[in-house]
Write a structure and sequence with these properties.
Helix content: 10-25%
Oligomer: single chain
Mean pLDDT: 97
Number of strands: 8
Length: 201
DNA sequence: CCACGGATTGGCT
DNA sequence: GCCAATCCGTGGA
């Protein structure tokens, strides 16, 4: 088996829906000292500021959302509900304002560090394991992603995404997005069918 | 099992 | 001043 390689800039610079679906099954990695936290991406949502009222970029560029107007391959991290961070992968060309929200990953490596970040302890119950990374803010807490990670280049060595074989269409499902109040009918949530780390069925 | 509400900052109207 | 791309605990059926 060939070693996994980082996704190249060109991967991210395509249509937001293509990138969203192809991110499923890829590996999110964050460096912590000499260790690497790793999880398989299993659930995402597409946001497109050109047509989508739920996208942070719908109303144009602001200080908060400016990273989302970068070219593809940067991390857009935002703070919400006064206590949570969520992370997005920016897609497309410069000034498009499109990104993919990471909603759930399946934890694969350094679970004890993730457990410490999430629950303040290394040994966790099966319920806590299930709740480790099955939500957008849970991913950020487990992976230690916060405000200072906004704008991180995913082609760098701190936070990046490793390639894997493209999933066949029949393993992917789509639904409406979760937790929004605008553009609620767009079926832009994509996830791996039957994965046990989804935030919802 | 499900529904509901509190937490708590800060962006934008 | 309003309210958010969330999470978690509580309380009732």
């Amino acid at each position: 088996m060939k070693p996994q390689k980082k996704l190249p800039r060109k991967f991210y610079m395509r249509d937001v829906h293509i990138v969203a679906k192809e991110l499923l099954g890829k590996f999110l990695v964050r460096r912590v000292g000499r260790k690497y936290l790793k999880g398989k991406i299993v659930e995402v949502e597409a946001y497109d500021g050109s047509v989508d009222k739920a996208a942070h970029t719908y109303g144009g560029k602001t200080k908060r959302n400016e990273i989302m107007f970068n070219e593809g391959g940067f991390l857009y991290v935002y703070f919400t509900y006064g206590m949570h961070f969520c992370s997005n992968v920016v897609t497309g060309k410069i000034n498009e304002g499109k990104a993919v929200l990471l909603r759930a990953v399946e934890p694969l490596s350094m679970l004890d560090i993730m457990a410490l970040n999430r629950f303040g302890k290394k040994n966790i119950s099966t319920l806590e394991l299930k709740n480790l990374t099955n939500g957008p803010a849970k991913i950020c807490e487990a992976f230690g992603i916060m405000r200072s990670d906004n704008g991180t280049d995913l082609l760098g060595n701190e936070i990046f995404i490793l390639n894997s074989q493209k999933l066949s269409e029949n393993k992917i499902a789509a639904s409406v997005r979760i937790g929004i109040k605008k553009s609620v009918d767009l079926p832009w949530r994509y996830y791996i069918k039957n994965n046990s780390f989804l935030s919802r069925k």
